[in-house]
Write a structure and sequence with these properties.
223 residues; alpha+beta; OB fold (Dihydrolipoamide Acetyltransferase, E2P); 2 domains; 5-stranded mixed sheet; 3 helices; 16 strands
Length: 223
């Protein structure tokens, strides 16, 4: 996925989950943060951040904060909507006859349902922005919704669906994502149970530039 326009600013502070203040062209500007996770190790005062114009006319913030340079060096895409868009493009390069986003299963909406021949697939997508020593960790904050989705996939696998969880790594140089059991033990337990039930766990590296988040077609990742 690509952003049509990107500009650089300096991060100042984040008064709440949805809003940050940045220095843009010498002015302090309020921007929308497109990630409700903590991002504490990323959004530090003074670091370079990336902004794109907001897509909703008339809203209070004209810009979306979508990227940050960790320690002012390594670029992270932190747009929580970008992983699903990138996965949608990646799936369309695979031989599925049907790809349906936001599929209802049980009491949840699963990110993608796919069909290939007699196979029925369900795929849940998680964006990973927490990196420590070259390893990705998910989540960076407790997520009841995330554990619920894993339980739904576990149930679906028991009904004959082919199921997978895709951790989209929103920075370069990281190839593996592990469950952050210290932050969210319930998610880690649900992920382990899903894997035992046959749910495939994918860590998907990405190409990341200011304008781009793209999942390469690695043979070992293809569904």
């Amino acid at each position: 996925m690509r952003y049509p326009k990107v500009c650089e600013a300096r991060f100042l502070d984040r008064p709440n989950r949805f809003v940050a203040h940045v220095s843009l062209a010498g002015e302090t500007v309020a921007v929308h943060v497109k990630n409700t996770g903590r991002c504490r190790e990323l959004l530090l005062p003074g670091v370079r951040v990336l902004l794109t114009p907001g897509e909703t006319p008339g809203r209070k913030t004209a810009w979306d904060l979508v990227g940050v340079y960790k320690n002012d060096e390594r670029l992270f895409n932190i747009d929580s909507q970008a992983p699903n868009r990138a996965v949608g493009e990646w799936l369309r390069r695979q031989p599925f006859s049907e790809i349906r986003p936001e599929a209802v299963f049980g009491s949840s909406r699963i990110d993608f349902a796919m069909v290939r021949g007699e196979e029925r697939w369900l795929l849940e997508v998680k964006g990973c922005t927490l990196e420590k020593d070259g390893v990705g960790w998910f989540p960076d904050a407790p997520t009841l919704r995330g554990a619920k989705h894993l339980r739904e996939l576990t149930a679906a696998a028991g009904e004959g669906y082919r199921c997978a969880v895709a951790f989209v790594i929103q920075t370069e140089g990281v190839t593996r994502v592990l469950p952050n059991g210290e932050t969210d033990p319930a998610f880690a337990e649900a992920l382990a149970a899903a894997e035992r039930a046959g749910v495939r766990i994918l860590s998907l590296p990405c190409r990341v530039t200011p304008e781009l988040l793209e999942i390469p077609d690695r043979p070992e990742d293809m569904l």
